[in-house]
Design brief:
By secondary structure, the chain is α+β, with helices and mostly antiparallel strands. Helices cover about 25% and strands about 45% of the residues. It is elongated.
Length: about 110
């Protein structure tokens, strides 16, 4: 094996390792939606959150979702229309946030 081939092989291996570690770190990153509750649909376990003036984002909650209200333990009952919320979780196919935590910030 020539010196050029060896350098190319080592460089390629390092590049692959860096890309694999970067992809792994991106998968662990939590997504966040911050806004006001626009609508709650308990039948489909979804909350529509108004982000800014016109963007509506859909948040899906479930039995494993944790709730806080003003930084204290809370429940889904604290999530009401008009209240500011911060929802954390992961996006499914980039359209809905599957919430692991919903933090109700104010009345």
């Amino acid at each position: 094996m020539t010196r050029k081939s060896l350098i190319a092989l080592v460089t390629g291996a390092i590049l692959c390792l860096v890309l694999a570690l970067g992809a792994s770190a991106a998968d662990k990153k939590q997504a966040r939606i911050d806004g006001r509750v626009h609508q709650i649909n308990k039948d489909s376990s979804t909350i529509e959150v108004r982000v800014g003036t016109s963007l509506i984002r859909k948040v899906v909650y479930g039995p494993d979702t944790k709730y806080t209200y003003r930084n204290k333990p809370g429940s889904m009952d604290d999530v009401k229309d008009g209240r500011r919320v911060i929802c954390l979780g992961k996006f499914d196919d980039k359209t809905q946030l599957i919430a692991t935590r919903i933090d109700v910030r104010e009345k």
